[in-house]
Amino acid sequence: MRIGIMTSGGDGPGLNAVIRGAVRRGTRAHQSEFAGIRDGWRGLLEDDVTPLTTYDVRGLSGRGGTILGTSRAHPYSGGGPARMREVLRARGIDAVIAIGGEGTLAGAARLADDEGLPVVGVPKTIDNDLDGTDYTFGFDTAAAIATESIDRLRTTAESHHRCMVVEVMGRHVGWIALHAGMAAGAHAVLLPEFPVSYDRIHRWVRSARARGRAPIVVVAEGFVPEDRVEAVAAKGEAPDGRPRLGGIADELAPLIEEATGIETRSTVLGHLQRGGSPTAYDRVLSTRLGMAAADIAVERAWGQMASLDGTDIVRVRMADAVDKLKRVPQSRWDEMQILLG
Q1: The whole model's pTM is what?
Q2: Which residues make up the binding site for Mg(2+) (predicted)?
């Protein structure tokens, strides 16, 4: 069997480890050959494919980014499924492992279930918002980077007796803000799932200051305060028409300073959370998911993806995994609130 591998959508730490795990498992356990599809669906639509051997994946476990490149190309553009069939047939590719988040796997599920294409998946998103898996690789690294950044900002905040507002990624869900906020001991944590009022934010900040602390506010980019209608999108629109979220920290900082009298600064971490080497946890998870994906492909279980259930790697239908977002539950928010202020 010849298996093609692609990485699609936003990048994230651990992509290369998935590629390595799949190639090593497929080559050694199943005597399969591999092909690298460049820049996600674009490579499959434009026949941008290159051989991928165990030599090519040496030392990839700790390397960030993706050696195959990525893009947000739509699988139904540029000839769509019909063109993909031509490329797969011409290249002798029997299966495709699609590594990506909600958008990528939704497209992969449709191609497998509706078009009959030989596609399996591996879930990836630093937001950890994909249903059907307990954790996605890349999330642990993003949360660790955010935590370290908050730790560093705390020292300068304490030196100047300031409040710091730190914006992390999280368009629809607040997993990064929740974990980084808890790990770093933030005094206010603001999630898209649970709108709170400006007054409540100010009370948390005042409470921290009253105890002699330099208040730390962690906010997900998709957080919407109670009296706002939509998230802040100060960066315009993406090519697909979606608003580019970001800027809520810059909006909150002057409001907090005005309401509390505490000098306040904002920091937007942005793509720092996507870059660099993956944590040990993400390297292990990525490798295991890649190995499992190779098994799924060899068994021709199209439309399935590798998933984490507790500590076990299992299989689930991609269509089920993208049916809804995995949001922070009320129980986790209740835990967090005890620590705030």
Answers
A1: 0.93
A2: 102
